[in-house]
Amino acid sequence: MEQLDNKHIYGMFFKDNRKIDNMLKDIMFISSFSVYLNIVMYSIIYKNNKYDANKVLQMLGIYNYRKKIVKNCSLEIKEKLVIAIRILKGSKYVMLKEPINHLDEQGSIEIRNVIKEIHYKYKLPIVICSSNMKEINFICDKLIDKNELNIQK
């Protein structure tokens, strides 16, 4: 198995989206809570001491939305919230499922930029799981096979 390093944004292609769904079912928002409370909740769940909630919100450019109720947030803010929670998880890499899906063109550009900024600025390896090979080729600089991460089919 290849070690993931902070030099790449990795792409993992899946023809069947259900396989991705089964892999990444660990994040659910409490839609009546604020963005900040959702971040704090996951910070406690993951016992994350490396990043505090405000720092993660600032990293992703959503600090000004911290008081906003999640159910009233745009898809772009919700996707950034998913990325924030994945960072708080404290894994060796941040794994994202279809981070650009359902976003308009401006939202897609912003999420791509956030992913690249987090990767390069904070030296976090990122794995993008997608059924859209065009998107993987656009944002990722290295392709890996799902078996390299020991992911069950």
UniProtKB/TrEMBL annotation:
Keywords, ordered alphabetically: ATP-binding, Membrane, Nucleotide-binding, Transmembrane, Transmembrane helix, Transport
Residue spans crossing the bilayer: 27-45
Record family assignment: Belongs to the ABC transporter superfamily.
Protein name, entry field: ABC-type multidrug transport system ATPase subunit
Organism: Hathewaya limosa (Clostridium limosum)
